[in-house]
Design a protein that fits this description.
Layout lengths: L1 H18 L12 H53 L16 H6 L1 E2 L9 E2 L17 E3 L17 E3 L16
Length: 176
C-alpha cells in the first residue's frame, strides 16, 4: 500500500513539474535566454525611469526657486509699503526700498516705537538659491535698467537668480 502511494505521488510531482514548465530530471531554474530577456526588460525600464527622475528633481528645484523669489519679493514689497506709510525710517534716495537683503532679515525699528529693541523683520533668513546652492542673489535697484545684471548698490528693488541655464519651460533662470 505504501508503494502505491509513493508511485502515485511521483507521477503527480512529474505532472506538476511539467505544468509549471520545469525540467523533469531534477533541473530547475531559468534558461540563459530567459535571463537575457529578463535583463533586457529591466534595462529598458531603468532607461525610461532615469530621465523621468532627473526631470522630477529639476522641476522640484525650479518650484523652490520660484517660491524663494516670491518670498523675497513679497518681503521687499512689505518693506516698501511700511516705508510709504512712514512706519519705518528709510534713507534718502532709496525711494523706500531696503538697502540690502540683510536689512530684511535683521529688521528695522518702527518709527515712534517706545521699545528700542522692537524691530519688524521681513524675512527669517536669506534663502539659498536651490540651483546654485548659495545665498548670492542678483539684485536690482530702482536706478538700474530692468535687464541689468549689475547692481547699482542704492537699494534693492528686485531679486533674481544668478543661475545660468534654461528652465524646463525654455526661459532663463535669471529672467524669473
Amino acid at each position: 500500500m505504501s508503494g502505491t502511494s509513493h508511485g502515485t505521488k511521483g507521477i503527480e510531482v512529474k505532472r506538476r513539474a511539467r505544468l509549471w514548465g520545469r525540467a523533469q530530471g531534477g533541473e530547475a531554474g531559468l534558461t540563459l535566454l530567459e535571463l537575457i530577456v529578463a535583463c533586457a526588460i529591466l534595462m529598458v525600464l531603468a532607461g525610461v525611469a532615469m530621465p523621468m527622475a532627473r526631470v522630477s528633481v529639476v522641476r522640484h528645484k525650479e518650484e523652490m526657486l520660484r517660491y524663494d523669489l516670491r518670498e523675497m519679493r513679497d518681503a521687499i514689497d512689505h518693506y516698501k509699503d511700511d516705508a510709504d506709510k512712514n512706519l519705518i525710517q528709510v534713507q534718502a534716495g532709496t525711494e523706500g526700498y531696503p538697502p540690502d537683503l540683510q536689512t530684511l532679515v535683521n529688521g528695522v525699528q518702527l518709527t515712534g516705537a517706545q521699545d528700542k529693541d522692537k524691530k519688524v523683520r521681513y524675512l527669517r533668513e536669506i534663502p539659498k538659491d536651490p540651483l546654485t546652492g548659495n545665498q548670492d542673489w542678483g539684485l536690482r535697484s530702482t536706478q538700474d535698467d530692468p535687464d541689468s545684471k549689475s547692481w547699482g548698490g542704492q537699494d534693492v528693488f528686485d531679486v533674481y537668480s544668478q543661475a545660468t541655464g534654461t528652465a524646463l519651460d525654455g526661459t532663463n533662470y535669471s529672467d524669473w
